[in-house]
Structure formats: structure tokens, C-alpha cells
Specification:
heterodimer; A: mainly alpha; Formate dehydrogenase/DMSO reductase fold; 10 helices; B: alpha+beta; two-stranded antiparallel ribbon; 8 helices; about 20% strand; globular
């Protein structure tokens, strides 16, 4: 009973997990919405299938940004100082870069919408390209924010930023699928476009999931402890929600779509992949913190 | 210089001081006077600590031993908390202290996440006497006392003289002699943080990660209840 006189709390809770998920989704939604303007007739013009989605997609990305930005600010202990990472910029902190890129990303969304609204098609491509680079930086910086913690072995892994980018592809695809299905604009080209992205996202997620497993199983004592923690406290989130529902089930549904081209099935697969994307991140964030708490 | 720091590490640099602490675990009796002195010196609120003494029991009756392990900020020469702070609120002092600028801290808790020694905490808001709250706090090696030629409060009060503080760059200081003559151990040296708190004769249960999990469920249940009660109000929503 006398063993622990202290049990400090792990610093990052649900707000960070939800923020990472929402900002990743917003980023990929932007990519889909800007794709027709940026890629045009490249790849056989398949990106043009997203043309009806442009305005709705940008509004959806803006809405997600308007939710996730304040969520991140409220999560701070001193929310009134939310501009400090920009005012006192520290170049070695990914959080500083994220704080810089986040409003710029918002500006790109607003700029793209304005160009659509006021019918300035010549502006769509440059804003689209700039916004796509910034949207890539959103999940990338959240992953880097974990990766740079050299002292937390579950995070200090160069695949984490890549994983976060891929997970944002899954969640963004889910949002686009749901919106397009609800609006009745899920034609064959849209199906083909989203199907390809979801396949790539799921395949890469599976590969990185297996890579994570190998790292955990063959890792140092801290990773061994993380492995025990994941299986004791987060096994439902890790094995059921991430691996079962988030990776295996969508893969099975994707096989179904080979024989039966159903927008409903593809949307269901994308939504399940998004659920997996959320829980994969949350397990990594939570379990990565607990090993230090125990030390 | 490691990236992201504001001052060069001063260890071994002639003409500069490098403050460090040696903790001789052969002398620690687990009285917790250091913890109390620290609480008194800084009015540290309930539920958070700048320094602690971890206690672990090994063996089974009649062959048992109780191990004590004072823990505090290691004032690393390559501190990951400093590198990761987005506002440079935490910074490296030229004499080795790792300090915190409360007026700049946004309490994003990145430094807590970065610290391998679990040495940082969030100060609750709405404190009664001290108005500093809602920001990150940590051990400062009692920088204000050292500047006035005093030793840190925990060192001053240590009954068994287990905690010894001094300038590691001065070869005649007690800490320099202890570090030179004993096989000292630092915590998690493999992380590359170059910690500057040296331990004499620590036990494996306190230094190795796989043995570090709390066995006492009563203590853990107490802590969980405490944080659950405060969740969302003073301590944000971090996970246990």
C-alpha cells in the first residue's frame, strides 16, 4: 500500500485523440474537394468525379476545422495564450509548426471557397495546391508531435507520421462517401475514385499495423511493457475496434465490392475504416503515455 | 549543442558551473522530509509533486527489503522537454538548471509527454494563496536558493544526508568527489537525455522499466479516485 506515493496523470486525454482524428479528416476532405482543380485531366481525369463535391467538401473541411481548432485551444491549460506557439515560435517543436500551419490551412479553405463563390477559376489551382500541401502537414505534424518524443518508444517511430497520414485518408474517404451517398451523387467514377483511395489506405494501415505488432513483440523492455498494457487495458480498442472492425471488416467488404459494386457497401467499409483510424490513434496515444507513468 | 536548447551544456566546461545532485540510497530512510520541504517551499498543491520518494518492497517474509527512491527533475543536459516546448516556456539555464517561464506556458503538456522521468505536472487553477495556476510546474533545483548560496530545500532538510547538491565542475565539491569515487547510476541513460541526478546503489526495481509497474492496487485506486474526482476541472482530462 505504501508502494506508490505518487501517480502523476498522463497529459493527453480524449481531446487530443478527437482533435487528431478531426483534423486528419478535414485534411483529406480538402484533398478530395480540391482534387478536380489540382489534378484536372491527370490520371484520365478521374479526379473530376469530385467536381460536384467541391463546395460541400470545402464547407465540411471548414466545419471540422471550426470544431477541432477550438477543441485544441480549450484543451490548453492557458487557452488565452493560444497564439504563443506562433508569437514565441520554437522551431524544434512540431507543435509550433502545427500552430502555424493550422490557420494557414483554414485560410486556404476560405480562399478556395471564395474563389468558387466569386467564380475565379484561375485561383482554384494555386490555392488548391497550397492547401493540399498544408492539409498533408496536418496529420503529418500530429504524427511528428508523437514521433519526436525520443523517450517514449511506442511513439518514437518513423512510421507514426506516415500512419497518421494514411489514417486521415481512411477517415476523409469515409466522410466523402457518406456525404456523396446522402446527396445521391455516388456515380461509377466516384465509386472508382474512392475505392482506389480506400484500398491504398487499408493496405498501408494493415502493413503498418503489422509493423507495429512486430516492433512491440520484439522490442525493448519499455515496448514489452507497452505490449502488456495494450493487451490488458486496451485490448478491445486495439484488437476489436482497430484490427477487427477497422481493418479486417473493411477489407472483407472491399472484396464484396469487387463482385457487387454497391455505394452502400463501400461507404460502410469506409466508415468502419474511419472507426479503426480513430481507435488506432487513441490506443497509441494512451498506451504510449502509460509506460512513463509507471516508471 | 543539442538542438532546440537555449544554452550550451556546461558540464566539464572550465569557468562554468554545472549544478547536480547525488542521491546516496544507502542513506535514505524514506522519511519523506524532502517531499514535505518541497511542498512547503513552493506551496505545492494536493495531488501533484515536485519531488517524491517511490517505495517498493521486494522479497517475501522473512527475507524482505523496502527500497526508497527519491525522484525529481533530472535537469538533463539534453532535455527533451525543452526541445519540444512550442513556446520556449521551458528552457535550459547556462548553469544546468531546466527552468520554467510560467508567463509563457500554455500548458499544452508536451513537456510532460516528453519527460521520461515523469517529473512534471500541471498546477491546478484556482489556488488559494499562490496565484500561479493552469501551467506546468517542476523541480527547479531551488534555483532561487542556489542563487542566494543556499542548497535546495530538499537537500537542506534531508535527515540522512542522502541528497547532496553541488557544482559538478568543481573537482573539490562533494558531488564531484562522490561521482568520481562511486559507481553512480543515472536513470534511463539509454534515452540520451544526459540526466544530472546521480544515484548511489539503486535497486533494480526502481531503475528497470519492466519492474516499474505499481503492484499495490490500493495506492493506484487512491490515485485514480483522486484524478477522476478532479477530471475536467483542474487537471484536464488526461488518462491514468
Amino acid at each position: 500500500m505504501f508502494e506508490y506515493s505518487e501517480f502523476n496523470i498522463a497529459p493527453w486525454g480524449w481531446e487530443i485523440t478527437v482533435y487528431f482524428f478531426l483534423i486528419g479528416t478535414a485534411a483529406m476532405t480538402y484533398v478530395y474537394a480540391a482534387a478536380p482543380a489540382v489534378f484536372g485531366n491527370v490520371f484520365g481525369g478521374i479526379a473530376r468525379s469530385m467536381e460536384p463535391f467541391q463546395k460541400t467538401g470545402m464547407l465540411a473541411a471548414l466545419l471540422l476545422l471550426l470544431i477541432s481548432g477550438p477543441l485544441l485551444i480549450v484543451d490548453l491549460g492557458a487557452p488565452e495564450r493560444f497564439l504563443y506557439p506562433i508569437l514565441h515560435f520554437h522551431w524544434t517543436s512540431p507543435l509550433s509548426w502545427g500552430a502555424l500551419f493550422l490557420p494557414l490551412f483554414g485560410l486556404c479553405i476560405v480562399g478556395f471557397l471564395a474563389a468558387l463563390w466569386f467564380n475565379r477559376p484561375q485561383l482554384l489551382k494555386p490555392i488548391g495546391i497550397l492547401g493540399m500541401l498544408l492539409s498533408l502537414s496536418m496529420p503529418l505534424y500530429t504524427g511528428l508531435d508523437l514521433m519526436v518524443h525520443q523517450t517514449r518508444e511506442l511513439w518514437s517511430n518513423p512510421t507514426i507520421p506516415v500512419l497518421f497520414v494514411i489514417l486521415s485518408v481512411s477517415s476523409g474517404t469515409a466522410l466523402v462517401s457518406v456525404i456523396q451517398l446522402a446527396r445521391g451523387q455516388f456515380d461509377d467514377r466516384t465509386f472508382e475514385f474512392l475505392h482506389w483511395f480506400l484500398y491504398v489506405a487499408l493496405g498501408t494501415t494493415l502493413a503498418l499495423f503489422l509493423g507495429e505488432l512486430v516492433t512491440l513483440l520484439y522490442g525493448s523492455e519499455e515496448l514489452q511493457q507497452a505490449w502488456t498494457l495494450i493487451n490488458e487495458r486496451f485490448w478491445v480498442q486495439f484488437w476489436v475496434m482497430t484490427f477487427g472492425l477497422g481493418i479486417l471488416a473493411p477489407f472483407l467488404l472491399m472484396i464484396v465490392t469487387h463482385y457487387w459494386k454497391s455505394a452502400w457497401v463501400l461507404t460502410l467499409a469506409a466508415v468502419l475504416a474511419a472507426v479503426g483510424a480513430f481507435f488506432f490513434r487513441s490506443v497509441l496515444i494512451y498506451a504510449g503515455q502509460l509506460t512513463q507513468i509507471y516508471y | 549543442m543539442p538542438v532546440g536548447l537555449q544554452a550550451q551544456p556546461s558540464l566539464g566546461v572550465p569557468g562554468k558551473k554545472r549544478w547536480a545532485m547525488v542521491i546516496d540510497l544507502r542513506r535514505c530512510i524514506g522519511c519523506m522530509a524532502c517531499v514535505c520541504a518541497d511542498k512547503a517551499e513552493y506551496d505545492v498543491p494536493l495531488g501533484v509533486w515536485r519531488t517524491i520518494v517511490k517505495v517498493k518492497d521486494t522479497g517475501s517474509y522473512p527475507n524482505t527489503k523496502r527500497h526508497f527512491m527519491p525522484r525529481l527533475c533530472n535537469h538533463c543536459d539534453n532535455p527533451p522537454c525543452v526541445r519540444n516546448c512550442p513556446t520556449e516556456a521551458t528552457y535550459k539555464h547556462e548553469e544546468g538548471f531546466v527552468l520554467q517561464r510560467y508567463e509563457r506556458c500554455i500548458s499544452c503538456r508536451t513537456c510532460i509527454a516528453a519527460c521520461p522521468y515523469n517529473a512534471r505536472h500541471v498546477l491546478p487553477k484556482n489556488r488559494d494563496r499562490v496565484k500561479i495556476g493552469g501551467v506546468i510546474d517542476k523541480c527547479t533545483f531551488c534555483h532561487h536558493r542556489v542563487a542566494a548560496d543556499l542548497v535546495p530545500a530538499c537537500v537542506q532538510t534531508c535527515l540522512g544526508r542522502s541528497r547532496i547538491f553541488g557544482d559538478l565542475n568543481d573537482p573539490n565539491s562533494e558531488v564531484a568527489r562522490l561521482v568520481a569515487r562511486h559507481s553512480v547510476v543515472t536513470l534511463k541513460p539509454e534515452k540520451g537525455t544526459a540526466p544530472q541526478v546521480y544515484y548511489i546503489k539503486p535497486d533494480r526495481v526502481h531503475t528497470e522499466q519492466v519492474l516499474s509497474r505499481p503492484v499495490s492496487h490500493a495506492a493506484r485506486a487512491d490515485a485514480e479516485a483522486f484524478y477522476r474526482h478532479n477530471r475536467g476541472t483542474q487537471f484536464f482530462s488526461g488518462v491514468l
